[in-house]
Amino acid sequence: MLSPRSSPTRDTVGLDGLWRFALDTRVGAAPWTSRLDSPLEAPVPASYNDLFVDADIRDHVGVVWYQREVRVPRGWADERVVLRFGSVTHAAQVYVDDRLVAEHTGGYTPFEADLTGTVEPGEEFRLTVGVDNRLTNETIPPGTLSSGPDGRQRQSYLHDFYNYAGIARSVRLCSTPTTFVEDITVATGRDGAAGMVDYRVEIAGEAVDLAAVRVRAIDEAGRTVAEGHGPEGVLRIEDVTLWQPGAAYLYGLVVELVTAGETADSYTQPFGVRTVEVRGTQFLINGEPFYFTGFGKHEDTPVRGKGHDDAYLVHDFQLLEWTGANSFRTSHYPYAEEVLDFADRHGIVVIDETAAVGLNLGVMGGLTGVPPTPTFAPENFGGATRDVHAQHLRELIERDKNHPSVVMWSLANEPASNEDGAREYFEPLVELARKLDPTRPLTYSAVMFATPQNDQIGDLFDVLSINRYYGWYVFTGDLATAEHYLEQDLRGWVQRFGKPVMMSEYGADTQPGLHSVWDAPWSEEYQSDYLAMYHRVFDRIPEFLGEHVWNFADFQTSAGIHRVDGNKKGVFTRDRKPKAAAFALRRRWLGLNRRKPGSGTAVG
């Protein structure tokens, strides 16, 4: 599925703005059949939970309704008309007037509906979207539904971030020709100073058999640097300018469909020429060792929740650059396409993660003291869950395969990889990922309960990403003991698997403004000392290839005694004010100066 882009043959109309809004409990049956009877309006894109002062809306479990009128441009006669959603969290039903035109499950990947013949150019239609936020053992991420004494549904889930819901990304109405480019896949390599661009074009529509495919690569100045014909081929770009971390360079692959000597469709796919490889215990970008510095992040801001916001996008990337970060992980779901486009243009490296977070019943057992049931049992997260997980993986790779910033796929965060059934669950997913994209390495983030001794899936992956909280959840306030156990733990992973290791999460909750001359947990000094201890360990392990602090910024979680107004492990507050740790990280990462201390490894 191609991202919506205007071209000589394509147009887009943005449908963002204020839509009518209502809970399903406050409207009659079949609300799509008439004007939504509600005084409320909600912005798109945004999560709806924090917009209103009504607690029933924030805590609602079930379906909400969005509605607006849309006019099809009158110039779109004889064109294909497509309605495209960047995402709807977590499931959607889409109606045009009284007709169901699309359904989709999965809150972080796009979907579309072909409205050709359903709507008319120059005419107006009523667009209604039902948004369902419920999570079950057969959704990704999973959750559990129950009923309270009042009969209302209650939602519980295993991930430590708030279950924001709504239309969180842009909605667009798009036109294409009736014979059109349906998909483009680009993979790049190098031959000396030349760049090799392997491309595949899929076309669809009314006159596929009559359409010829013409392609050309253009540089940033718009000059043609290579040309080809046919739906598949390899272009050679002489004296190529590589896409590199911190030094992005993007080419454009102009794909044209030609019928009877005329251009039937035209679409330009941005791409960067770069290679990615794991060799031994090194991660190589363009053949050079790369050391990850950066964060796990969240799409999370005040009021908008997970709604995409270009202002926060720009500011967050400015703060990444300020700290010396060169990368981040899309914890714990695919981020908006605009985020990856921005990373492509600005040379930030991305580990792209599915929404498979919470596949671990042992976490809840650890919090409650109640022995957990087996995570991968059929009644919990068995084959049906894996099938849904596989579909999420397909949609993630289909959407993001052409982004040069994306250098690795993360298949899950903190699964129960130490439990029986983990290998049977993950091995088919690893095989699927390698089939869908053989060019990028694979990883997953290992939970504290998974150790070098009991992990059952580490050998399936290329990079071992480890989440550890020695000094916070265990050995709290005792950094000396934490340092000993952290080093033994990391060395154990290297020794058993012989693969490169990185830290995908490490951090300590910190209340901004709390200070102490002692190692007092929650103080800004403790957060800085905690990170410094981890860095000492990292610098002693030659096979270590990166550090992603948890988290970039404080973020909202569900209410409970374990969290006070959210997770406070950010080195920035939720409104992006720096804590002391942000300055400490800046000194370390800028001081690395493209060299990892003690190992001679180039940082990139």
TrEMBL record:
A Pfam family hit: Glyco_hydro_2_C
Glycosyl hydrolases family 2 sugar binding domain: residues covered: 15-177
Keywords from the named record: Glycosidase, Hydrolase
Domain Glycoside hydrolase family 2 catalytic: 276-591
Nucleotide-binding among keywords: no
Signal peptide extent: none
Location of the Glycoside hydrolase family 2 immunoglobulin-like beta-sandwich domain: 180-274
An annotated Gene Ontology molecular function: carbohydrate binding
EC number, as in UniProt: 3.2.1.31
Top-level taxon of the source organism: Bacteria
Gene Ontology biological process terms in this record: carbohydrate metabolic process; glucuronoside catabolic process
Alphabetized Gene3D superfamilies for the sequence: Galactose-binding domain-like, Glycosidases, Immunoglobulins
Keyword Hydrolase: yes
InterPro entries (alphabetical): Beta-gal/glucu_dom_sf, Galactose-bd-like_sf, GH, Glyco_hydro_2, Glyco_hydro_2_AS, Glyco_hydro_2_cat, Glyco_hydro_2_CS, Glyco_hydro_2_N
Family listed: Belongs to the glycosyl hydrolase 2 family.
Stated name of the protein: Beta-glucuronidase
Species assigned in the record: Streptomyces himastatinicus ATCC 53653
